[in-house]
Amino acid sequence: MIPIKIETLLEGRKVEQNRIEYKAGFNPSEVVHTVCAYANDIAGVDGGYLVLGVQTEKGLPVLPPVGLPEELLDDIQLKIFQYCNKIEPRYIPKIDIVEYKGVHLVYLKCAAGDAGPYQAPMDVYSKKEAGKEQDRTMKYWIRPASLTTEAKQSELAELFEKFAAIPFVDRINNKASMEYIRRGYVEDFIRESNSSLIEELNIRSLEDLLISEEVAEEKDEGIVIKNIGLLMFGERPDKLIPGSKIELVRFHDKEAEASDFTEKTFYGPIWKQVRDALDYIKTTVIEEKVVKVDGKAEAERFFNYPYNALEEAVVNAVLHKNYREDVPVEIRIYLDQIQIINFPGPDRYIDMEKFAAGKIRARRYRNPKIGEFFKEIDLSEKKSTGITKILRELRKNGSPLPEFETDADRTYMITTIRQHEGFEVENKNFGQKNDRSLTEVLTEVLPQKNYNKVLPIIEYLEKNGEITPQAAEMVIGKSKSTVYRYLSMLVKTGYVEVSGSTNNAVYKVLI
Questions:
Q1: Are residues 384 and 257 part of one domain?
Q2: Within 10 A of 408 (CB to CB), how many other CB atoms are there?
Q3: What is the pLDDT of residue 363?
Q4: Does residue 79 carry a pLDDT above 90?
Q5: Rounded distance, CA 299 to CA 292, Å?
Q6: Is 181 left (phi over 0), alpha (psi -120 to 50) or beta?
Q7: Mean pLDDT score across all residues of the chain
């Protein structure tokens, strides 16, 4: 159902007339062009509405409307779905069949899209045939005022800039509702950030608080929630933004990690996920050692892992993750190291040597809004200081410097923090080679669910001895980022090695 009633729309209340288009009949190409234009929302008015079955005079609806034949309504609705599928990227408006003063209308709500710019064919009846790169002419459609038109060159530049300038977390989530938000999280954050809103917590509605925090907006149909609102105050943001969680795996025995490991998943607001994951590490993993040194009055104190360095690494992973991707932040705790993994990695323009030395300053930030919120509750410091803090805390503790791993395409980032040398690893047999098959060995090394995921790759390696990322994509039918994660998982077992650059990498069996 479209929240704004058709009566309200036709009477010109709440919605400006330049955001409404009326058509007496159904012309598929014209409808798709208008839908595409509303999705592009070049005027920044949050899309618009389209009503079929209404004649116009000087842009205003002629009432009572002529309506549409009842026997054609299902066919029209089906064709709207069919032809809107030709919009690239895919965009489908909300569609409703309504009755008004004895006639039937087709009513469309076309919210501003968040994955554009969008384009649609000049003629929706044209077909794209196999073997021909482009048989239909695609155009970017816009509504700079109350008329749908093809975007000119200068308008195209503006359109691309518009979509490039809106980070994903700042965009409206059309599936979200107030049911996904928990007031307790909003109040906890406001109190912890010492906001001026503290004095108004008892008199402000939840909707008012969200608007004040700029994580929601008031639109024609009511309150709409941005992705940042779900991430910061949602009970389970991962239900609408699937990758917004932290998965932690702790291996207790390197020789037989498949049978002795702990898994935990942290849900809720992303700032609470960070806190909960770090609390778990602090209480169950971090240890302090005191060593008496001959000739010195004071003993040496150090930790296996300095908490502040781990905190910064986890915060960085959550802060710089691409929330479009259905891949969570991962924390993998081994006996001698902790790895924090997020997707994607740093932008390509960043020099990794300077990055590892803490001497790089980003030109742009993936999720600046999250960074601002994190700073309000002291989870993050100034921009571009994260790596510097990790280095400082590790040096202060006497720990090895961190390792930062990514690929040429920067599809992932693995931050490895190794245990202080003063803490010995009891089990030294991990990774020893033997005469058994790869399948036999990996059934013992990998957790069962991970083994099942990579089994097609393992079988390919058993048969061929090596595999490329491109072949792995064909074998398992997953995305490039997932394939690299699976291949990295196999390399970490010590029974598969990788050689060559990212685009020409080859993964080979070592046993």
A1: yes
A2: 12
A3: 47
A4: yes
A5: 4
A6: beta
A7: 86
Asked if 31 and 80 count as a contact pair (C-beta separation under 8 A), the reply is yes
Question: 262 and 358 in one domain?
Answer: yes
Q: Contact at 8 Å (CB) between 402 and 380? A: no
| CATH number of the CATH domain containing 84 | 3.30.950
The 10s digit of each residue's pLDDT in 373-415 is 888 888 876 555 678 889 999 999 999 999 999 888 888 999 9
- Do 298 and 362 belong to one domain? yes
CB 75 within 8 A of CB 106: no
Per-residue pLDDT, 257: 47
Tokens matching residue 219: 């639109």
170 belongs to a structural domain: no
Q: Is the pLDDT assigned to residue 317 strictly greater than 70?
A: yes
CA distance 270 to 313: 14
Taking residue 215's Cβ as centre, other Cβ atoms within 10 Å add up to 24
> Does 348 lie in the same domain as 270?
yes
pLDDT at 85 over 70: yes
> pLDDT at position 365, please?
66
- Measured CA to CA, the distance from residue 113 to residue 94 in angstroms comes to 12
d(CA 90, CA 196): 42
Q: Is 184 exposed, middle or buried (0-12, 13-18, 19+ CB in 10 A)?
A: exposed
370 within some domain: yes
26 and 159 assigned to the same domain = yes
Residue 353 has pLDDT above 80, yes or no: no
CA nearest 378: which of 277, 275, 228?
275
- Number of domains present in the structure of the chain: 4
Comparing CA positions, the residue from 190, 334, 163, 340 lying closest to residue 269 is 190
How many whole angstroms separate alpha carbon 22 and alpha carbon 69? 16
Determine the Cα–Cα distance for residues 161 and 170; give it in Å rounded to an integer.
15
DSSP 3-state of 37? helix
3-state secondary structure 191-224: HHCCCHHHHHCCCCCHHHHHHHCCCEEEECCEEE
In a domain, 171, yes or no: no
Q: How do residues 415-464 score in pLDDT, each as one tens digit?
A: 999 999 988 754 434 334 445 678 887 887 788 888 888 899 998 988 88
Residues of the domain holding 291: 246-418
SS3 content of the chain, % helix, strand, coil (to 5): 35, 20, 45
Stated as kind and residue range, the H or E segment containing 338 is strand 337-342
What would the pLDDT profile of 446-458 be if each residue is shown by its tens digit? 888 888 888 999 9
Query: How many CB atoms within 10 Å of residue 469?
Result: 20
